[in-house]
Specification:
This protein has 188 residues and is mostly helical. The chain has 2 domains: 69 residues, no CATH class; 105 residues, no CATH class. Helix content is 61%, strand content 4%. A two-stranded antiparallel ribbon has the order 1-2. The model has no long low-confidence stretch (mean pLDDT 79).
């Protein structure tokens, strides 16, 4: 029976016809594939946490950090009421810098060849799940600490308002008027 190639092997073959990778890039891709393979076994229950770390023994520090972050994000962190207060403080006191014009510079480079998309981040729910507590942790906190979680998300929403300032340039397009661009400035 013929050996089935991994997605990485297929991608490397296709990419090889486009460009060549440096040795460092090849090693990075191989490390990534090895990590994903080991994590897959762990998440499928074929190895326990001891087996996971045994299989990763001798890996580069960057690979170990990725493995740790993956496990933390999957299982989530159990946050205490004090942790909620700390997170609220972080979001209440963070500051945003205005756009440095990089989107406009990219639009000049891209021209009519494509569309430059500006991204302003994730919703508070996504940010909590992806960055702080994982899906299980979020669900657990939603059931056991709903009011703390609601207060934190309200603070996160309020901190997002700082992204919009009076005088900021805006560009608006609407599907009903294809090709029409409206420009202006924020005011209130």
């Amino acid at each position: 029976m013929a050996r089935v190639k991994s997605a990485l092997e297929i991608a490397l073959e296709k990419a090889g016809s486009i460009a060549t990778f440096t040795q460092e890039e090849k090693e990075l891709l191989q490390d990534e594939e090895r990590l994903l393979s080991v994590l897959r076994e762990f998440y499928q229950g074929r190895i326990d946490s001891g087996g996971l770390w045994q299989r990763l023994k001798g890996s580069k520090p960057a690979v170990l950090r990725k493995a740790q972050l993956s496990v933390i994000k999957t299982f989530g962190l159990e946050l205490s009421p004090e942790d909620f207060e700390i997170l609220e403080y972080i979001y209440r006191t963070r500051a945003y810098e205005p756009n440095d014009g990089s989107v406009e510079k990219l639009e000049e480079v891209v021209g009519d060849s494509g569309v430059v998309m500006a991204f302003e981040g994730t919703t508070p729910v996504q940010e909590l799940i992806q960055g702080w507590m994982g899906l299980r942790g979020f669900h657990s906190h939603l059931l056991r600490h709903a009011s703390d979680l609601e207060n934190l998300m309200a603070t996160m929403h309020e901190s997002n308002l700082d992204k919009v300032k009076v005088g900021m340039p805006v560009r608006i397009t609407v599907d009903a008027l294809p090709g029409k661009l409206f420009t202006g400035y924020m005011y209130c």
